[in-house]
Amino acid sequence: MIEKFCLQYGLEEKIMFKHQKMALGVGEEEVKFITERYESFKTLFPYLELYTKEDLKTLEPKLVWADKAQTIERPEPIVAMGAKNEYTTVDYGAMTEELAKEGQNANPEQTTDIFYNSEVEDIEKDGDKYRLTTVNGTVFTADFVVVNAGAHSLYLAHKMGYGKHMGSLSMAGSFYITSGEFLNGKVYMVQNDKLPFAALHGDPDILENGKTRFGPTALALGVLERYKGLKSFGQCLKTMNIDGSATSCLGNAQRDITVICDYLNLEFNEEQFNTDLVEPEIA
Q: Which Pfam families does the entry mention (predicted)?
């Protein structure tokens, strides 16, 4: 849908760009995983390709060479599954502005209003209508309401009486920007199935002149929205809906050493873990 919208309004190479992207397998186990995943996916995604170490020397040379002079290959077997010449990168801030503009111009016989700084505090059923009250006291009525409020969606659902059996823990994801260009496209690590986050990856940042960014971090900040202080903390606490199940789930995650190591970007070795104290470097 994003690609079709941008192509329809001529936004390619303005806010939507083509880069190569791939998932990288390092070591025998990950190479086997990526190769098998490619075989099962290639009929669904005909543009998918499998890249050998020789292919990567051209596509992403810094993944292969262990030295700056590019004379020493890294010893591990590596393979990647990915695509070239596909739209992969979008300036979502600019696209949001385009969506708003085209949404307002879509039908000259209808009026589309956009209200900024109008945080919705309550949504209540009022007969066959819905009543929306904002924090500044403005009231709207509607035949139907679509809530697309990110981390606040479940918070609003709870206030309306929906999803009371659910809870969510908001996680923040940040990226580190390098001082130079290291990758030609997106490169993802193999996903850890135990972590519901995007795998660590690097890619050229279109807003930073192609400098490589690495991330995301995964940090529980205890707020639904950064820089909103105590109010957002209270909302986060309510949305977590802490009960026995939630406490057990969090406890299990904290006790799983593979999850902890992945969070800290450490390689887990059971024998080493039993004998050595691992102290990660803090960036």
A: Mqo
The reply to whether 146 falls in a domain is no
Q: Residue 75 maps to which CATH number?
A: 3.30.9
Is 18 in the same domain as 81? yes
Question: In terms of Cα–Cα distance, which of 218, 217, 236, 216 is closest to 226?
Answer: 236
Q: What is the rounded distance in angstroms from the CA atom of residue 22 to the CA atom of residue 86?
A: 11
Q: What is the pLDDT of residue 260?
A: 57
CB 217 within 8 A of CB 172: yes
**CA–CA gap between residue 238 and residue 260 (Å, rounded):** 26
Residues 222-278: tens digit of each pLDDT: 899 888 878 889 999 899 888 877 788 777 777 765 665 555 554 544 444 343 433
Q: The tokens of 135 are what?
A: 């924090």
Return the amino acid letter for 164.
Answer: K
Q: Do 199 and 192 form a contact (C-beta atoms < 8 A)?
A: yes
Residues of the chain with pLDDT under 50: 266, 268-283
> Is the bond preceding residue 216 a cis peptide, omega within 30 degrees?
yes
186 lies in the same domain as 249? no
Laid out side by side, the sheet with 120-126 consists of 120-126, 129-134, 139-142
